[in-house]
């Protein structure tokens, strides 16, 4: 059985230019439900979001994810849509994503102001719904926003179950469990990693099927995440190790405990983990040990 760390995808949409002000009136939460082949969406604003619990497709005892994507991304991007439909495909999750009409509003410099609005929208909901069923998932700058959101909520007595950063520009330790996945190094800062960090194929560009485009390697983290969501079993085993060179040389083969990247990551894991994927889909090799 999967560690839950749930899923309703909460899409946050922002409009207008970045200013030192509240984004409450520009923020929307978008609930995704239904079939992976025919997804449906319900929109809420900051003041109405807690009413999601009355929606007939909201599962009160299900793991619920709030996903915030990176700057310059939209819900129409292939790998964002893949994450959404992967959760819908499994049916056991509530799924919620974050979207922006003007992607230029999303930046590291605006992350805290955005998080202030996101946290105001979520607080009423999390006073009703069990926050230990909630998983914050953020990609790039989105991880920064959700990290600040987790920090603000925790200062108000609310701690969510899990915070995951996919190539995070920043990540804090304000959830019960914090993990990060790294597939490209331009955003990497050793001060902003999870309690456990997974370095896929060394965590650097190029990733499989990627050549000169760095963004392709950044997207690879989302592809691995989506594949883990669709799996019935832990499918990205990894070894604790100090470096990619040591991992590939087999110097970490005796290290324990073996962990799993993706949705199956266990909350007891700590430190740096490395894993190797296949060079084509399915990306999972189903082994923690390096190969040729």
TrEMBL record:
Gene Ontology, cellular component aspect: extracellular space
A Pfam entry, by short name: Lipase
SUPFAM superfamilies for the chain: alpha/beta-Hydrolases (SSF53474)
Domain Lipase: 50-282
Record keywords: Secreted, Signal
Domain of life: Eukaryota
GO biological process: lipid catabolic process
UniProt GO MF annotations: lipase activity
Signal peptide, first to last residue: 1-20
Cell compartment(s), UniProt: Secreted
Family statement drawn from the similarity comment of this UniProt entry: Belongs to the AB hydrolase superfamily. Lipase family.
Protein name per the record: Lipase domain-containing protein
Organism: Chironomus riparius
